[in-house]
Amino acid sequence: MGTLFVGGALTLTLAALAYPSMLGVSKVTSDPDRVIAQTQWGPLTEGDRDFVVKVRAAGLWEYPLGQIGMQKGSSKAVITASQHLVDGHAALDATCRKVAPMLNITLPNIASPQQEGFVTQLKAESGKAFDTDFANILRMTHGSIFNTIAKVRSTTKNRLVRALADQANNTVLDHITVMEKTGLVDFDQTLFNQTTPPKLPASDMTPPPPPAGQPQVVLTPPANPTSTPVDIDGIAGGGGTNSGGQPAPGPSPTAG
Predict the structure, then answer these.
(1) Handedness of CA 53, 92, 180, 82 (dihedral sign)
(2) Residue 243 class from Cβ within 10 Å (0-12 exposed, 13-18 middle, 19+ buried)?
(3) Pairwise CA distance, residues 133 & 24, whole Å
(4) What is the distance between the alpha carbons of residues 49 and 33, in angstroms, rounded to a whole number?
(5) Which of these, 250, 79, 239, lies nearest to 160 by C-alpha position?
(6) Using alpha carbons only, what angle is made at residue 161 by residues 137 and 196, rounded to the nearest 5 degrees?
(7) What is the pLDDT of residues 33-60, one digit of tens each?
């Protein structure tokens, strides 16, 4: 397939991005099963809260990257994959923004410094280099979070988190598939990077909390969306209002 990566620097970048913790949150405890809040929809654990923030953070960099790909992609397959990113993450983010206040989880408004770095990197590329790096970066990040989704879905006792995990599973599988259909994915490199954790400071992998009073960023759906948010009100039994109080106790939700 030819040379997929331009120099050692990009290879190191790709090695760093695949580890699941880069997708929005570094762990604040060694026990993701620790219950941090009791809600009417089931107990909320450290891992549950981290997952909701990860979903939000993923959309905050992959959605704009999809917009970039729709403009810069030089193949039909890359443009199609970009459209799927925008469509899927707009719907997934709508569900996330619905669930978060119900569970008293504070969401970030920008992705982590590392994630923002991926967007900056791809903004500077064009042509085949853009297509190739776009497909490989996104295939690896989606492949990493796929395992996290499965674990959350199989272990959470909170039905709102289960609903978000169901939608995330479908969305991420779709995005994995469209990246593979570009024909540009280096699977050997992908599998290596997905099992090789980066050695990065937590601050690089954690989205900063939003400033007080800052309006929440909304990922606008495309004109003709094919993905839809989950009917959280129906799943919650009409309990679609905030249960009150401050964000769930413990360390800052966006920090961990």
Answers:
(1) negative
(2) middle
(3) 20
(4) 10
(5) 239
(6) 30
(7) 899 999 999 999 999 999 999 999 999 9
SS3 43: strand
116-154 burial, b for 16+ CB within 10 Å, e for fewer?
bbbbebbeebeeebbbbbbbbbbbbbbbbbbebbeebbe
**pTM over the 0.85 mark:** no
Provide the greatest CA pair distance for the chain.
Answer: 56
In contact, 122 and 5? CB cutoff 8 Å = no
> What's phi and psi for 181, nearest 5 deg?
-70, -10
pLDDT beyond 60 at 21 = no
User: Euclidean distance between the first and final Cα of the chain, in Å?
Assistant: 40
Q: Which residue has the tokens 């099992």?
A: 195
β strands within the chain, DSSP E: 35-39, 42-45
* Cα–Cα distance, 252 to 105 (Å, whole number): 9
Average of per-residue pLDDT across 84-92? 98
Reported as a single tens digit per residue, the pLDDT across 157-194 is 999 999 999 999 999 999 999 999 999 999 999 888 87
- Looking at residue 245, its pLDDT comes to 34
39 φ/ψ angles, rounded to the nearest 5 degrees: -125, 165
- How many C-beta atoms lie closer than 10 Å to residue 237's C-beta? 10
Tokens 């996330």, located at residue: 96
Query: To the nearest 10°, the Cα dihedral for 174, 196, 256, 159?
Result: 40
Question: With pLDDT > 90 as the criterion, what percentage of the chain qualifies?
Answer: 70
